[in-house]
Amino acid sequence: MSSRRSGSRITDDQIADLVSKLQRLIPELRGRRSDKVSASKVLHETCNYIRNLHREVEDLSDRLSQLLASTDPDNEQAAILRSLLM
Length: 86
Known about the structure:
This protein has 86 residues and is mainly α. The protein is built from four helices and no strands. It comes from Hibiscus trionum (Flower of an hour).
């Protein structure tokens, strides 16, 4: 059985294009003038960036939960936020 599927093979040019697009999205790499950043470095920095975003989301979620827990349960704005989060 062949591991290749017809029509699904990605070319080296497509990979290079995708890595280039990732490089432009990652703040640590975006400012670099050189296009000589290795694909490995781009993928590594992308993983780090995603991990950091996850941590930020968790931190913001915890802070929001604490804020909502400390607000008056009858507060209309807090009730709206609670309903949006459920």
